Fold:
Amino acid sequence: MSENDDERGSDNAGRENDSDDSGGKSDSDDGGTESSGRERVADVAEDLFVIATRELRTIVRTPALLALAAAFAVSVVGVAWAGTGGGGGFVPLTLDLLTFVEVLVPLLAVAFGYRSILGDRQTGELDVLRTFDVERLSYVGGVYLGRALALVALVVGTLLAVGLFVPFLTADIPTFLAINAAADSGVRYVRFVVLSAAFTLVVLAATVGISAATRTVRTAFALAAALALALVLGIDTALVAGLASGTIPEDGLAVLLALSPNSAFRGLVLSSAVGVVGGADVAAGNAALNALGLLAWWLGSLSIALWRVWPAVEPIEE
Amino acid sequence: MSEDAPATALRAQAIDQSFGDVDVLSGVSLSVARGEVAAIVGPNGSGKSTLLHILAGIAAPDGGSVAVPREAAGARSVGYLPQRPAFRDGFSARDTLGFYAQLLDGVDDEDVAATLDRVGLGGVADRSVGSLSGGMTRLLGLGQAVLGEPSVLILDEPGSGLDPAMVERLFGVVGDLAADGTAVVVASHELPAVETHADTVYVLDAGDFAASGSPAELLTETDTDSLSEAFLRIVRAQVGESTVRAGVGGRSSKKTAGADTAETDDTAETDADDGVETDADDSEVNGGE
Structure:
């Protein structure tokens, strides 16, 4: 067979498909029909769950991650046990754990996420997966879903478990005082747990985005560590410095707080899970803006991961 | 493989590829028929891995096209074995192929077991991939590549690091697959095995095929007795001389052994294989050879 024996056809053969991804598995040539669209969605979802399952199994089989998870759980239990929270009610427990969650969850997310996609890139499995017609949405979505399930289960499970301390450790409520049951209730604590889960999903998305966008472990680790540092210290410090120097006007503070996942999370917890401290409302920014800020970080991070995970290559099957 | 499948399994036309100001491939065309074993040989850095990435549909060429006619049978179009296959630790060989099988329609656990047997890993199917030798890992990579009976199989240095018996076994498997109608494109430095098993040999040098034909034709054209000698004649090298290439035009930059760092600035993060890897945008090409 000669290398130049086939001159027929368009020089764009194999590029007829408008899809910018790896094609999908449907045998139908009419990609615009409703049935082929449904098949494609089903294929994407099926592959996504296969990949998510592999991620979960990977985490369960990675001793370092299991050790970190155990360390997190023990630390949270320790804080709840030793602090005033466990014996003082749900709101004191929330206040005890808030800073702790703000610091530890980004670190956990870095550990769970920064090599999630980079690892497959380095072993060559990312290239291999593409010959299985796996679409970017399936791959990134599967990696994120699998890691998120593990991490959220850890955070939520641990926080709910320590919440169970409260009924046991709280001193008997005196019967001679009028008590406003709404001021400290399990519902408020559940709100804190739900917000913690959302915060976990956001910072994990950011580290998965970094993992997809980087090509070396060194770069990924440096960026992920820088992200964690910025979330925990950098952005808040910059805000305080800006306020103190007058660079940041006070009326713009709500917007700026919403730009940082940590500040937005803290604001939402203070406004919806704490509410009133010492008889005064907590200044916690604008709840809607905070929620929007978290959503923007989540969407932006996953969009970057989808965009950068692998290059767009026209399908070669004709 | 279906009887009514088209005779041409893979067609590449006028492939161009550059990394920065280094042209790696320039107007490369080839066509591989069903059941044909096409070997691509060439000096280090000649662009073999880059070409295979493009043929596998993993990388987009700067110019030209690749087409794989749709097959009636087979769960996927192209199977690909990277130069250094590696898999996630903590999973067995069976788990690993099982994962890939789940991504294919109509491929089940029985197919996984049959594939493991086919590549000679049936006896270590439940061993962790981290405990497999380099050769076994490569065979597992081959198993992954043949899963789902692709119509085209693209193998990047499948025999690298294997002992001669394993190389023969691996090429034997490749020959069996070709006999079943699979088109095989293999980049390899194992020239004796290539001489024995390949139907067509393409010698890639200076961005394009410097020669092509059956092993016998190349021996006749170069008036040599072995493919190794023919290769040296075609790339105009002497035994013991470095043949590292740095893209098109590298032929004029031959250096003596021990002074062969023919890499560009763009190769900072590569392990050097095909010479050129950029971290820029989406044009990453895995190196290593």
